[in-house]
Design a protein that fits this description.
binds flavin-adenine dinucleotide, 24 strands, alpha+beta, 8-stranded mixed sheet, 7-stranded mixed sheet
Amino acid sequence: MTLQSDSRRWDFETDLLVVGAGAAGMTAALVGAIEGLKTTLCEKSDMVGGTTATSAGTVWMPGSRQSSAAGLPDTIPAVRTYLAAIMGEEANDERLETYLATGPLVLDYLTERSSVAFIPPPVHPDYRAAPGAAIGGRALGAVPFDGRKLGRDFARVRPPRREFMVLGGMMVGKNDIPPLLHPFASRPNLVHAARLLARQARDRINHRRGTRLVMGNALVARLLYSLKQRAVEIRYQSRLSELIEREGRITGAVFETPDGDIAIGANKGVVLAAGGIGWSRALRDRLFPEGTQRFSLAPESVTGDGLLAGERARGQIEQELRSPALWMPSSVMQQADGHLSVFPHIMLDRAKPGLIAVNGAGRRFVNEADSYHDFVDAMLRSHHTVPSIPSFLVCDRSFIGDYGLGLIRPGTSDLTRHLRAGYLFAGDGVVQLAKQIGVDGGTLAETIERHNRFAETGVDADFGRGASELNRFNGDPLNRPNPCMRRIGPGPYYAVAVWPSDLASSAGLRTDVDGRVLTSDRKPIPGLYAAGNDAASIFRGTYPGPGTMIGPAMVFAWRAAMDAAGALEGYAAD
Ligand SMILES: Cc1cc2nc3c(=O)[nH]c(=O)nc-3n(C[C@H](O)[C@H](O)[C@H](O)COP(=O)(O)OP(=O)(O)OC[C@H]3O[C@@H](n4cnc5c(N)ncnc54)[C@H](O)[C@@H]3O)c2cc1C
């Protein structure tokens, strides 16, 4: 595969050619169409959605009208203070400033012209306890969507990770968890749970999975619905294989399809939005640190194609970032049907009281309730001196009953399947468990004992567990004095191994404020844009808060499409 500079005939021509149908690509295609461009969206798999469809679908959009209207106002100076605290000098960045200025415009633009809609949950804290951090209002979630509205195209929406669905394909949003776990705790809980179950019972008769879509699936379904309404052409099973250049400008691309290669000309530009590094063996080996290369949370169709094509077109992958990817700790289980479950420990168990994480020395190395990225970051740092990949989440039987552990749902009474599969380790006493996971028994006993003393006072003198808004948000509010700490024991004791897995790449093509791909001497490549994970993260490998990937993915996709349409100049909010 090489960049082609030829005079081949186009199989057909379009104005805006978009590669990849995730948050970035679907937004670019939608905006192109709204601005009057003939737009073609080419997707490698037979479904839209990419990683976006399997995500929480949150966008971090400081200062939005939607948040003010919900009584959760945010200010740009507060955000700047926060970003400066996390990113230091790197927060003085033109793209970052452009993001802050454009985010609210994009939300309004899409709300007014499409079915894409977001609402801010009252509480969704930033990921770091730093000056200027928000507790709510900065992160917005996609409004749930009724998949039945898509008709036959519902089957084109990539389903969520199977580990996150229940009852044969029902999606569960964060607000659904308490009613489903404790339906008899209150009348509203009972009504909510009964409605969900009745809907799912009907869906199972008529559909392959539940049609009440939440989170990333709701966002993707809303984008697809909007694209359909604008009659945008979506070409499935069309894999970008090479870009075409003519006289220094990217003028189109070649796609592999089941009917052979087709060459599509793009009069206004090509947007690369193929989801970043994903499973690309070559890019993972080149860019990721040791111990992180094994597991990605991207769908298998995301294999670095956009980045590699961009590089061949003289684009440059920006690598001077604090981290080439954003991480989640995941436990892994080979299922009986051959499926490899990679379960990201996002917020259901790590912050709950009665669990610790230990490294290969049997010692804690992190505030377990911090963000998943910070957790893995600490794991990588610990690994410099002590084997910490994998690390182990350790708890007792009551913890699994109350909160579940990874793939094991709360209340599970029979653990045999998980034990037999080697997913769950168990020991009647601490020393027996330590033997199972290969750490020193005495040290693990000391670690648990020390943690238990902290749990009594509610103060984690080692790592400050439970001290931040984020910790408490994901803890158990009924647990006192610290919602994230309670005694571990008596036995039996349990553990699962967790590995670093990337939820997004932050290393990506260097782009300017309008999403134009830049060469190594910082010149835009005419006709070539990149957005989403195909573009380098504006947060430079830091993870400020929920939604800091999809937010920029949509904003820079918007700017790219607006630029291609010649509609960006002079665009301003009323
Ligand atoms: C469990 C989980 C939860 C997350 N939650 C959030 C969250 O709430 N908020 C947030 O901001 N981020 C979240 N993320 C990260 C976020 O989902 C991704 O960063 C984001 O969705 C990437 O969007 P994208 O458009 O760049 O790529 P994707 O959504 O991955 O889309 C890329 C598309 O391109 C297609 N493609 C690949 N190669 C080609 C090719 N050669 N030709 C044509 N098409 C191609 C793929 O098939 C795919 O459909 C989460 C991630 C995970 C795993």
